[in-house]
Amino acid sequence: MNNNNSDYSITSELLKEESKLKGVIRKWVADQHDQADVYQETLTTVIEQHQQSPIKNPIAYAITVARHFAWKLGNRSFEVYDESSDLRESHSAEDSLLQNEQIEKIQQVLNAMPPMRQQVFIRRRLHNQSREQIAQELDLSEEAVKKHISRALAQIAMHVDF
Q: Which residues form the RNA polymerase sigma factor 70 region 4 type domain (predicted)?
């Protein structure tokens, strides 16, 4: 397959999922102009990466790239993307309300955590950093990182019904 066909293929695949990708970006970035910038940067990055090495799941990769660009903008109040929520046929108003309440509870619990625990948990769960990476960057042992993550999960579980 030549490069132009490959670029066309990945571009058309991304455009099929345009509303999904833009919806995720809207959750993470408030300003419409910033949303457009994140979307364009995401498409460009995914296409450029695909030219270097084929991407098996372009939309999943695009969502990861978009999250990175949203984070770089400094908008750290976004939630983790959960693809399963897009697979549901419909949401009742009650389900949506319950989900929003759970998100608010989790945010409150996160805000009440000791700063180091909060930072370790966010790096692990939102930014997908390895425990080893977190330990190195924060000058902690891997065991300390593991304990912070466990305690954060326990603290969240105590306050949120899943």
A: 104-155
